[in-house]
């Protein structure tokens, strides 16, 4: 991994600052995920972001193993992230869930393992979410107990680093102030883009030496059940358009560059070969401070992925300011 294109984590490991996202809705053929991941690795992506819940780790693992087999990369060149299913927050299920991911991937370890969402669901073979009479079945698990089980996964060598996703400040503090804390979360992966620039959460995470990782960095696709179909299209915003013209780059590259320059690790997701290759060009230019300030002004705290269906749970993360 190129050290210049990496950020240091608080446990001494390094994370490539540009990652390849692999989530795809059910209608996307699984074979396309393998193909896109291979294209991503060929284009230079070394950070692959996935999750147990995406139900495509066999396909992503196949792509990684193929690229190792053909000599493009070695295992240690790849930084692979997986995430704990919300149905596996009970401490005794945490390592079981990780081992299932590793079995699907046919890998010995993941580089980063995250608590995918702070809201626990009742254990269930149906991944997400558990429903009875149209109501979600929440579980009562203390996040600190889940975190202790995550620490054991790190000690067992199954995960090199451990972190969280979709946590707000209050939930992060719950972990950070836990008596007997062995490892701090190395990162917090959250939705972040020019319409939701997360400046307060970013400052807080930096103060605690926690890396902010951005998903939805290009706005987001209209995923049924997750995103309002009338949501604004970030990449069609005239401010980004004007800046793209000025720098002779795409609006997507301007958005990615903006996040990178703020010290955020960015996930870019595309299954389109041309766009996958294009996203790697984010390292070829810099935005001057005045352009960064203009993009800052686009913030409207607009969240594409609100996960409203879990808003009744006390650990729902989006009611707090940050």
Automatic annotation (TrEMBL):
It comes from Microtus ochrogaster (Prairie vole). The keyword Protease does not apply. Belongs to the aldo/keto reductase family. This is Prostaglandin-E(2) 9-reductase-like isoform X1. InterPro entries: AKR, AKR1C, Aldo/ket_reductase_CS, NAD(P)_OxRdtase_dom_sf, NADP_OxRdtase_dom. It comes from the Eukaryota. PANTHER family: ALDO/KETO REDUCTASE. Residues 18-299 form the NADP-dependent oxidoreductase domain. The gene is LOC101988440. Keywords: NADP, Oxidoreductase. Pfam families: Aldo_ket_red (PF00248).
